[in-house]
Amino acid sequence: MKRLAIVGAALGVLFLAASGPANAKEGTSTEQTLKQLEQDWTDAALKKDSAALGKILANEWVSLGTLGETSREKALAELSSGENRIDSMTLSDLKVRVFGDTAVVTGSDDEKSSNKGKDTSGHYVWTDVFVRHGQSWQAVASQSALVPVKPAK
């Protein structure tokens, strides 16, 4: 009986050791995929590539930000027309949390941008929600806020 308990315990340890890294690796892979999607999103905006951005944004995507609510259709049209310009953008502080087929990515960026000729440059914090469709992820919702610049003392 003691031998059976030892074999059972050993198998349990082996199972945990085998399943632990696989789950961690899967999580890391998903995290890397979503961080890359955020970079691809930035690259598409910088290159004014509405086709590439259209693959990242789901049809039902909506964004809430300093300019109000924006739909996928409106965002792609503004990018194509040049109304919404992003001249430079640096992503930082990316954090990914995965909940099955849904993921939340939070981060910030420093950008030089304008919308309809108005300067919208600054430091932004944001949240993007992604949903997995088969093997790919698409953004379904976003929210961003411009961080106010503190006056110098």
List how many beta strands DSSP finds: 7
> N- to C-terminal separation?
76 Å
Strand content: 35-45%
List the helices and strands in order. HHEEHEEEEE
Shape: globular
Count of separate DSSP helical elements: 3
Radius of gyration: 21 Å
Major sheet characteristics: 7 strands, mixed
Please give the share of residues in helix. 40-55%
Low-confidence stretches: 1-26
> SS-based structural class?
alpha+beta
Mean residue pLDDT: 84
Give a concise summary:
Helices cover 41% and strands 44% of the residues. With 153 residues, the chain is α+β, with helices and mostly antiparallel strands.
Description:
Residues 1-26 have low confidence and may be disordered. Helix 1 (2-47) runs antiparallel to helix 2. The protein has helices spanning 2-47, 50-56, 72-81; strands at 57-65, 68-71, 84-99, 102-115, 118-119, 122-133, 136-146. The chain has three helices and seven strands; from the N terminus they run ααββαβββββ. 41% of the residues lie in helices and 44% in strands. It has 153 residues and is an alpha+beta fold.
Task: List the main descriptive attributes of the protein structure presented here.
globular, 153 residues, 7 strands, disordered N terminus, seven-stranded mixed sheet, alpha+beta
Write the layout of secondary structure elements.
Layout: H1 2-47, H2 50-56, E1 57-65, E2 68-71, H3 72-81, E3 84-99, E4 102-115, E5 118-119, E6 122-133, E7 136-146
Parallel strand pairs: 1-7
Antiparallel strand pairs: 1-2, 3-4, 4-5, 4-6, 6-7
Helix pairs in contact: 1-2, 2-3
